[in-house]
Amino acid sequence: MTTSELHRAIEALQRGGIIAYPTEAVYGLGCDPHNTAAVMRLLALKQRPVEKGLILIASDIDQLRTYLAPVEASMWQRAMATWPGPVTWVFPARKTVPVALRGEHATLAVRVTAHPLVRMLCEAFGGALVSSSANIAGQPPARNVAEVQTQFPKGIEYILAGEVNAQAKPSEIRDIQTGNILRPG
After folding, report:
1. Has residue 81 got a pLDDT over 70?
2. pLDDT digits over 16-43, tens only?
């Protein structure tokens, strides 16, 4: 990734655009989580019901704290044992987190990524990003730029090219309060 490519992705996010980018296992669709119109466009593009909620991805835990309700230190330790990495944890959300992000839940799914390109993207953006697999609901997630373009010929402002681990499955999702696996990886 060049500085120019990173700059173009950040500009798209700042304008309220939706971008696609590689994550640990699949391409993700992302936008500024503070831009409700962008979040709603992303959900419409994916044909994903708002009730399901979304994942936020970050380069470090500090980018997520403002979204999460206070929890016990042991819960933070549980998450930090898997981060950075491909494990998404479902935390209690602050009451101020919009329904467009958390869906019908009182929780929010979050992950600190290990993917170097996404870490740079979040750092340059200055915060967490919405991260939902790059696919129309019910379809297989895209694993390269061509697959993103096939599923989404319109609606994505910028595609940040990069590598995913083609053998990996989408991130495992766990409940921070119980440690239970909600979706195997």
Report:
1. yes
2. 999 999 998 899 999 999 999 999 999 9
Model confidence pTM above 0.90: yes
Contact partners, residue 11, CB within 8 Å, separation at least 6: none
Q: What is the mean pLDDT of residues 121-131?
A: 97
Vertex 55 angle, CA 120 and 179, to 5°: 110
Say how far residue 11 (Cα) sits from the centre of its chain.
18
Decide yes or no: CATH 3.30.70.60 for domain 3-183. Answer: no
- Contact (CB, 8 A) for 27 and 133: yes
What is the SS3 assignment for 27?
strand
User: C-alpha distances in angstroms, 108 versus 64, 111, 173?
Assistant: 10, 10, 11
Look at residues 117, 153, 104, 145 and name the one whose alpha carbon lies nearest to residue 20: 145
Sheet with 129-133, strands from edge to edge, namely 158-159, 19-22, 27-30, 129-133, 55-58, 107-112, 87-92, 172-175, 181-183
Q: What is the mean pLDDT of residues 127-152?
A: 95
Helical spans, DSSP H, in the chain:
3-14, 36-46, 73-80, 99-102, 116-125, 145-151
**CA atoms of 83 and 102, how far apart (whole Å):** 21
For strands 27-30 and 181-183, give the pairing.
unpaired
Rounded Cα distance, 85 and 39, in Å = 24
